[in-house]
Amino acid sequence: MKEQLANIRQQAVAAFESAEDPAALEELRVKYLGKKGELTAVLKQMGKLPAEERPVMGQLANDVRAALEQAIETASEKLQEAALAHRLNAEALDVTIPGKTPAVGHRHPMYIALDEIKDIFVGMGFTVLDGPEVELAELNFDRLNAEEGHPSRDWSDTFYFDEDSRVMLRSQTSPMQVRAMDTMDLPIRIIAPGRVYRKDEVDATHSPMFHQVEGMVIDKGVTMGDLKGTLNLLMEQLFGEGTVTRFRPHHFPFTEPSCEMDVQCHKCGGAGCPTCKGEGWIEVLGAGMVHPNVLRMAGIDPEVYSGWAFGMGLERLAMRRFKIADLRLIFENDIRFLEQF
Ligand code: PHE
User: Fold this and answer.
1) Maximum average pLDDT range among 37-41, 104-108, 231-235
2) Residue of 246, 252, 254 lying closest to 283 (CA atoms)
3) pTM of this prediction?
4) Which of 150, 172, 315 to mutate to test the pocket of ligand 1 (most atoms within 8 A of CB)?
């Protein structure tokens, strides 16, 4: 019996030590120490022993039980430590791995160009105005000296909302000249960017919706020289010092005299190339001295006040500013294109 106890102790301790997880350890505990366990089986034989041997064997059995319990305790602690170490290892967080940067958008290239234009004019004391895209034909045409029968009023050129052609999508930002004169105190210095609409087919340089920036100054003693000086400064700030410009005579109903402004082609320096269609110059805006009739209709005395105005196509300007070849790229909103700016 002594030998049996020694064997159990040896086997059990060895088994506990090599248990691989808590469940296996628990199974081993039952196997050796449980009610039907090996140690219990040996103890049940105690009754067969001679009376004088019982206390000695009892003592020995108790020592073995204590030793086994101790061994289980130690093995269990070891397993828990190992499990913890394993978890810490598996769940380790590497704070040095670069994170996923969220995709952040940015302004559209045309609005980058517009912000530059606004900055330049605000720096010269201009106010930036915003106005309606659904406009009265009265402001888009009549108050701008384009009376009934003027070709730009034709249904083939303009989007109207009603049969009597009174409400329309503005075909130019020039009605903002009228709105400024009707609401602001003199002198006036404004720019007014926004969308305009014309019945044009889409191609590389046309779209039924595009953007203009209107500009107007009204004060005493304003001349064509002020117009040229201001617009030359604008082009130099946008396209670099020494940018060459020219002014050609033109006609608009609401300015007199009227002109168009060209900027020398940045690609060929004026020699003529595909970008400028062989002309050496790129048209950027229409301008002129505000027509006396327009001033009079706004209640401003043309004998006392004079003014100049301009209107430029924003897409074309942005195209030149960022060397974009096709107008459609500006509207298509292809991220691969937009990301370049
Ligand atoms: N509104 C004109 C256009 O759309 C441009 C312009 C504005 C011309 C102001 C003169 C003065 O073509």
Assistant:
1) 231-235
2) 246
3) 0.71
4) 172
